[in-house]
Amino acid sequence: MAISLQDQLLKAGLASKKQANKAKADKRKKKSKTAAPDEDAQLQAQAQKRDKDRQLNLQREQQKLLKANLSQARQIIESNRVEMPKKAEIKHQFSHLKFVKTIHVDKDLQAQLFRGQLTIVFMDEKYWLIPTAQAHRLHALHSEWVVELPKQEAPDEDDPYADYEIPDDLMW
After folding, report:
1. Considering the entire predicted model, what is its pTM?
2. Is the Cβ–Cβ distance between 150 and 116 less than 8 Å?
3. Which residue has the higher pLDDT, 17 or 168?
4. Which one of 50, 123, 137, 154 is least enclosed by Cβ atoms within 10 Å?
């Protein structure tokens, strides 16, 4: 069996026992120092993986919430929409996405639109009428589908024209 270099140096008298022990201790310290950065790298990689997993889970939860809100918004429209008459002759014009759009309504629906009882919503490339109370719920879930909520304007106390009613439904 071959003798190690350290033993050969001790036999030849070129190194002392003290130097040999010091070399062994340095070797052990060097191994522990090289192991520590590997452990640090592993811990850092695990922490990064946990952060990435948390972000992915958060994104998944947000997507689930968005999907649930969309389905609930769709259900609100489908269950509360007012049937549009087939032979309505009155054009009701409104603006949506910077364009003027037109739907055909009858006198009853037109009056409800002017009083703010009905609201126009947009879903699946179509316009629907739903009650304003349901439109507020829909606006909380998915505001892009609500074309415009009726404004509840409070009259000014010092308005000199408060006694004069302005008709909204004039037919020209």
Report:
1. 0.58
2. yes
3. 17
4. 154
